[in-house]
Amino acid sequence: MVRLLTLGFLLATCLAAQNASSPEELLRHAVDLQQAGDLEGAVKGYREFLAVRPGEVAAHSNLGVLLAHMGRYGEAATEYRKALDRSPGNSGILMNLGLAYYKAGRIPEAAKTFSTAREIAPNNLQTTTLLADCQLRMGQNRDVITLLKPFEEANPDNLAIAYMLEWTGFSAMATLPKLAFCWGARCWLHRTSLPR
Prior knowledge:
Layout: H1 2-19, H2 23-35, H3 39-52, H4 57-69, H5 73-86, H6 91-103, H7 107-120, H8 125-137, H9 141-154, H10 159-167, H11 176-189
Helix pairs in contact: 2-3, 3-4, 4-5, 4-6, 5-6, 6-7, 7-8, 8-9, 8-10, 9-10, 10-11
């Protein structure tokens, strides 16, 4: 009887091992689910893959992107931080982490993250404008001017830069025509908060 139970246990173990997916199959399945629109299934698939291969930077980053897309910014930030633990100089992952903080309303953390990303890629206009927007939201108007003035000179038609500089109170006669458009965009974006 003991032999029969032992044989049954060994057979069950062998069958389970045959049915177990390789890490590559787990990852492929997660990506397939994501592409098919099964986002919850994809999250589960990425997590199953990361349970086997916890050091995969791209999988942590992809899971972060997926979670952010689903509006789960705190979880996304956790995955981005795990990816950055293994790839600290990755400006793309830093940008995504900053965006997760930004969308979650964690503006000081977003500003710090965008600042770190700027140290790696100081001429990246997107990172710079996002950092300036965070500084603007925190009332750091002088920092916004210092940060954006060199970019304004190099990008005179950039309405985002013109808008933020105008919002700080910094303006010049040459920027007035485009600022009127920016003010109109500001009103449109915040029309629900305007006095009626």
